Amino acid sequence: MSCWAETDLVPAISLGDRLAHGDTSIFVELLEILDEAVTIRDSTGAIVYANRAALIHLGLASLDDLVSRSGQSIMDDYLVEDEHGQRLTMDDVPSVRLINDKPAEALLMRVVNRSSGEARWNLLKATALRDEQGAFIGAVTVIEDVTAVKTAEVRTRLLAESGRVLASSLD
C-alpha cells in the first residue's frame, strides 16, 4: 500500500511560471499588500479594480461602492487643484488621459474633501495595460499620498521666509 497521493506525481507549478502565465490571484494579493492606492480602469474608463488602500483613500467601503459611482461623481466630492492652484478635471487624470490616447505624465494634485475639509496631496502615476497583440485594454494608476512631504516643504519655505524677514529687520 502506497502512502503517495496521486497529486504527488504531478509536478507543482512554480511561482515564476504562475506569474509568467498571468495567475491573477497572485497579482491581486500583491496589490492588496501595498500601502499605495492602486486602481485599474478598463478601456471604457470604468474602474474595474481598486485595492484596499484605494478604497480607504477614497473613503469607500467596497469595490461595489466604487464601481457604482462615476469617476466624475467621486471627483465632485473634492476640490481638486494642481500644485499651482489650477483646477483639475477628470480629463487631467493620467489614466483618463491614457484612455483618451494622450500622454500621461505623473500628476501632483491637492485634494480637499468638500464635506470634511481634509486636505491631501496626491501623486498619481499611470501606465497603459496592453494585451498580447499590444492593443490598449486599460490603465493602472498608483496614487501616492505625499501630504507629509508637501507639508514639510511649506513649513520649510515659511521658516526660510520668516528668517529672511527677521534678518532684514535687523539691518
Please provide a written account of the structure.
The chain has a 6-stranded antiparallel β-sheet with strand order 2-1-6-5-4-3. β1 and β2 (47-50) form a beta hairpin. The chain contains 7 helices and 6 strands. It is an alpha+beta fold. It starts with 14 loop residues before the first helix and ends with a helix.
In angstroms, what is the radius of gyration? 22 Å
Question: Structural class, judged by helices and strands?
Answer: alpha+beta
- Helical content, roughly? 25-40%
**Biggest beta sheet summary:** 6 strands, antiparallel
Q: Tell me the strand order in the biggest sheet.
A: 2-1-6-5-4-3
Number of helices: 7
Silhouette: elongated
Provide the residue-averaged pLDDT.
Answer: 85
Low-confidence stretches: none
Quick description:
With 171 residues, this protein is an alpha+beta fold. The chain contains seven helices and six strands.
Give the arrangement of secondary structure elements.
Elements: H1 15-20, H2 24-32, E1 37-42, E2 47-50, H3 52-58, H4 63-67, H5 71-75, E3 78-82, H6 94-99, E4 107-113, E5 119-130, E6 136-145, H7 147-170
Antiparallel strand pairs: 1-2, 1-6, 3-4, 4-5, 5-6
Can you give keywords for this protein?
36% helix, 6 strands, elongated, 26% strand, 171 residues, six-stranded antiparallel sheet, alpha+beta, 7 helices
